[in-house]
Design goal:
By secondary structure, the chain is an alpha/beta fold. The chain contains 7 helices and 9 strands, in the order E-H-E-E-E-E-E-H-E-H-H-E-E-H-H-H. The strands form 2 sheets. Strands 5-2-1-6-7-9-8 form a 7-stranded mixed sheet, sandwiched between helices. It has a two-stranded antiparallel sheet with strand order 3-4.
């Protein structure tokens, strides 16, 4: 299984922080040795600079990707999703969804998907339904908009930019890399910061260490 993180200039670092930390470290995976790879994908091999000023070099170019069953394409928020140079990325994402592969988009990337008509046939969320209507003239998915932090409908996950935690939670559920009790404890610990959820998280790992 592979998760392809699309990296573009002005990428919102924090929107995928929970996600990348756990996928890279595998510290809460049910099976840390399971075949799995987190891959950074870009339009070129040239480094991008995130909104936080971090330089990231893509591992592969998007046109080199051959998605397999169970793989996931992640589209983080950025300030450039409306720019012409990102059209190939959105076209690839649309093709990915239409062919039954998994896509997860947050914040500005959901607006890009709306512009491509991807959201019309899926339950979804974004930063604001009115903004989607105003900025995406062809958007016809208003009836399927959900005022929720993150929404999964079949092979598509969408999230508001204010919900990086819920976004990661939905992705982990889709990938099925954590035990259900581990994922619930992980979510509640970050939501509530209550010590009991840390203990539940440790207990869910059995003999494994949570650190």
């Amino acid at each position: 299984m592979k998760v392809y993180l699309t990296v573009v200039d002005t990428m919102a670092d924090w929107e995928v922080g929970y996600l990348t930390a756990e996928l890279h470290s595998r510290r809460f995976f049910a099976n840390p040795l399971a075949p799995f790879e987190l891959v950074k994908a870009g339009l070129t091999h040239a480094p991008i600079r995130t909104m936080g000023g971090m330089d990231i070099s893509p591992d592969v170019r998007l046109h080199e990707i051959a998605l397999q069953a169970g793989d996931l394409l992640v589209l983080p928020g950025a300030e450039v999703w409306g720019e012409p140079e990102l059209a190939p990325v959105l076209a690839f994402a649309r093709h990915t969804v239409e062919h039954g592969h998994n896509v997860a988009a947050i914040c500005g990337a959901t607006i890009g998907l709306a512009q491509m008509g991807v959201l019309d046939d899926y339950d979804h969320t974004s930063n604001d339904p009115g903004y989607l209507k105003d900025t995406c003239p062809g958007y016809a998915g208003a009836a399927r908009y959900r005022n929720e932090p993150a929404v999964r409908d079949r092979n598509l996950i969408t999230a508001t930019g204010l919900a990086p935690l819920e976004f990661a939670h939905e992705v982990f559920k889709l990938l099925d890399v954590m035990r259900p009790e581990t994922l619930e404890a992980w979510l509640q610990l970050h939501r509530t910061r209550e010590p009991r959820w840390f203990h539940a998280l440790v207990a869910s790992m059995g003999a494994d260490s949570a650190a």
